[in-house]
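tokens incoming
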């Protein structure tokens, strides 16, 4: 398994590797989605989340192995880029990829866990959410400013 850790967290390499290795049997389940799972772990005094991506289908196993970066790697790289550009996002900690000879297996993205007042999912699923229009408008402005052209991706 390939494990890439942010320089700030290299001293926690053993713990991070153990969280990934024992993901199925440890941690506190935070999200149990159809495609991905997120579990919470303690890393020193910081709560982190470890996202396990669904194993891709046969064609994508080949694509992620030879032609495309994994979702976990892209999450890690884009989070670092956003921070470099001054856009706040949870601190990326690591990503891991189970790379096989002729395919791609599981992958994991690890980042700081933040407690938030509102998620986008809550905004769009809760009927008559207070100040819905204003929040959605501000979110859309943020997304527009974060185009590849604006951030020089």
């Amino acid at each position: 398994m390939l494990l890439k850790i942010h320089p700030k967290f290299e001293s926690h390499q053993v713990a991070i590797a153990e969280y990934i290795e024992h993901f199925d049997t440890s941690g506190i389940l935070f999200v149990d989605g159809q495609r991905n799972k997120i579990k919470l772990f303690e890393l020193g005094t910081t709560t982190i989340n470890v996202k396990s991506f669904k194993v891709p289908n046969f064609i994508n196993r080949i694509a992620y192995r030879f032609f495309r970066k994994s979702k976990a790697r892209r999450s890690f790289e884009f989070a670092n880029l956003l921070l470099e550009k001054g856009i706040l996002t949870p601190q990326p900690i690591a990503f891991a990829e189970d790379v096989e000879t002729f395919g791609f297996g599981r992958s994991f993205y690890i980042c700081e866990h933040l407690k938030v007042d509102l998620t986008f999912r809550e905004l769009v699923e809760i009927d008559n959410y207070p100040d819905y229009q204003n929040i959605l408008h501000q979110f859309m402005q943020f997304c527009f400013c974060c185009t590849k052209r604006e951030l020089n991706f």
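note: The chain has six helices and six strands.
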